[in-house]
Write a structure and sequence with these properties.
The structure is a homodimer of 453-residue chains. Chain A starts with a helix and ends with a helix. Chain A has helices at residues 3-13, 15-26, 38-51, 115-136, 158-164, 166-169, 212-215, 222-231, 254-261, 267-274, 286-295, 335-348, 372-380, 401-408, 433-452, and strands spanning 55-59, 66-71, 78-84, 104-106, 109-111, 142-148, 173-175, 180-181, 187-190, 192-193, 195-204, 210-211, 300-307, 316-317, 320-329, 355-362, 365-366, 390-392, 412-413, 430-432. The longest helix of chain A has 22 residues, at 115-136. With 453 residues, the first copy, chain A, is an alpha+beta fold. At the A-B interface, β12, α7, α8, α11 and β13 of A face β12, α7, α8, α11 and β13 of B. β13 (300-307) of chain A pairs antiparallel with β13 of chain B, so a sheet runs across the interface.
Amino acid sequence: MTDFQAVDQYLQDHLQESINELSRLVAQPSVSAQNWGLEECAGLVGEMLAQRGFRVEIVPTGGAPVVYAEKAGRGPGTLLFYNHYDVQPAEPLELWDNPPFVPVVKDGVLYGRGVSDDKGHITSRLFAIDALQAVYGELPCTVKFVIEGEEETSSVHLSDFVRANQERLRADACVWEFGGVDFRGVPMQYLGLRGICYVELSVETANQDVHSGLGGSIFPNAAWRLVWALNSLKDADENILIPGFYDDVRQPTPREIELMSELPDASQEYRHRYGVDHFLGGIQGGLELRLAEVYRPTCTICGLTSGYQGPGSKTVLPARASAKVDFRLVPNQSPERVLELLRAHLDAQGFTDVQITNLGGDAPALTDPDDPFVQLVVDASAGVYDQQMQIVPLTGGSGPNYVFKQYLDLPIVTAGVSHPGSQAQAPNANMLLDLYLKGAKHIARILQAFGQG
Amino acid sequence: MTDFQAVDQYLQDHLQESINELSRLVAQPSVSAQNWGLEECAGLVGEMLAQRGFRVEIVPTGGAPVVYAEKAGRGPGTLLFYNHYDVQPAEPLELWDNPPFVPVVKDGVLYGRGVSDDKGHITSRLFAIDALQAVYGELPCTVKFVIEGEEETSSVHLSDFVRANQERLRADACVWEFGGVDFRGVPMQYLGLRGICYVELSVETANQDVHSGLGGSIFPNAAWRLVWALNSLKDADENILIPGFYDDVRQPTPREIELMSELPDASQEYRHRYGVDHFLGGIQGGLELRLAEVYRPTCTICGLTSGYQGPGSKTVLPARASAKVDFRLVPNQSPERVLELLRAHLDAQGFTDVQITNLGGDAPALTDPDDPFVQLVVDASAGVYDQQMQIVPLTGGSGPNYVFKQYLDLPIVTAGVSHPGSQAQAPNANMLLDLYLKGAKHIARILQAFGQG
């Protein structure tokens, strides 16, 4: 019996116990957007870590506390896990088949708010640690956990926490909060996140809406001001018109292009799932679509609001108008720089009346696909999944990985239990028990290999 | 005792009775937007006319019925009154000091939904008829009434009604549903209404909103399509860019400019009431503002809606976006032509994906300020008001006056009981009893002078 066999056997035998623990965690609501149950959930997570012999501290942040935990292991290396115990709001409740905070298993699937995002990731890692400690009596390396409670609300206090705790967080590598398989069932290694700069643009031109018959010819109109200001940001060929916006953009490297070229064509999946009839810039699919999807920085209108929006007509000239706009940033752009450029551009175009409210930003961050730790994680997946893990050098989303990059300077990998139908932020959020077991096996192998390295 | 004295004395003596009748009419809700009480109110209005010896018909239209009434008089001429018995919704109810359908008099002011718009105009005209019939035993001319129940919902069946009843509606002149004094207390003669073309522009680019991290670089965005399409309609210097839009615009005549130049400066009033800090095109006020206000056709965004509009941020790429847009039209533009030009323009600009929904249109219509009937009405006001009635050749609003112009070809004047604080469409709608009495006196003089002409 190899080491893997003993560990795998343990995981197989104790799966139900771990699902029970996960169910207990899911049953504790922890909705950061609604400030609901956060302290309680942090306490519960801390208790679970303490039961495994971790030294645990619940660290106040000004918002939801961070659960910090560490435990020394056999080898000299230190592995850091980043997770979060908060979840998205469960609304709309009527679309759930079962109450969101009453976890239910059906046909090999666990349903409940947060089962995969991110509580299943937390307990699958604890489960792997249980197996290793049961088989070997100790951890193969030092393990640290940072489990925050504000990931679903832009991680507003995380950067301060990591900076203030830079020394005790020191580690050699980090496993990120998410991970899993793609629509083909192939395990994916997501190595980078784009940055984001999210703003609200707003205009106010009068103290009240005015009858359009009176004001239409002579009064400034907030909705028109907003439309013209937005139009100045991007042309219909998708060129972002803010001077300097593209200055810091670096093109994908040959190695990144090589990795992207190994990914499957996503065009049919996107056309089918979202009902789009074409892609921007005349792109048909394949590598071209994969590259455009992540290496092209964006300026996306996420929302527009002004004046009358009900049925039929109302002849009103709006006094107020606003737009939510996000910029997805690629290496080496920064949200601070984009904010500066945006203000300068609007002013230069005569839109001094357009107010910018900064609603949050993340810098882009990448891990080198040829970092030895990445290879370790890919190799560790071999005995777990039927198919070879594929490396995605950059994904379209954003997150606080740059904070760990900036202050701890370590490689960050993904390894997890999600699948594309997890409905992480939607009703009937779910997790496949088979992938949960595989995820735990993978984590155990990563820890073991890391301890030997 | 002159004729005027006897009529005025009657009105003075019977004011309370007329206010009681108006209160009874106000107490009958008749909200066309909510299809509430329309048949009942039509019946009540018909009853009031029948009591005065009018031949009354409640004419079905497919929507709210039209109350049509006529009564022959001494002279050969026929005067037509256009009114409406429907009112705006009373909501928001919590902002009323008294229940909207329980009329209350306080300090010479009658409060209630519809007291001036338009039920006070109806009863003030009946009141004038009472006085004339009491003093002379007959009407000085033939009088006809068209009192519709859909004025607050775009008069959708009025055009068909007038066309179908063209012969029996024949008249020599028409008194419109509204009228009154301006902010200085000067009686105003509004002789024209602009046209309107109200559309909704909408775009759909996918079957659901997409995460902006996924779709931002590659998926079409409905909000951006809408912004670009809107931007193609008008530039930041207020030039409407639809080819042909200005072709049918006629400039104000020297006579119209002369009349507009006699109006008071409105710039301080507008700056103060609406909190606007400037007027479009660098206009400061005076005649320039008066002319721009009505003789410049408009393209007004009345509303914008797309994607996420709540607090904070949501990273979503909207599948749908729409805008409400109204065009105010000057002589000799037409809403049908503007619709055609708009479609052709959007297509030519590549916005075949932008759908246009026609939400209603009115043509502009004018009455010649030198029509003898206008002079008659201005002269008739002399003994009623302290100040000379002023003629406004065109106002900024819109309405169905063109229907009467088109099918009956008659001059249309205004004479009424409103003041700028009437709050016609807002809570605490009100009417000054003093102006009510004056309005009735004016109507009596118009009828008398018309019968003698």
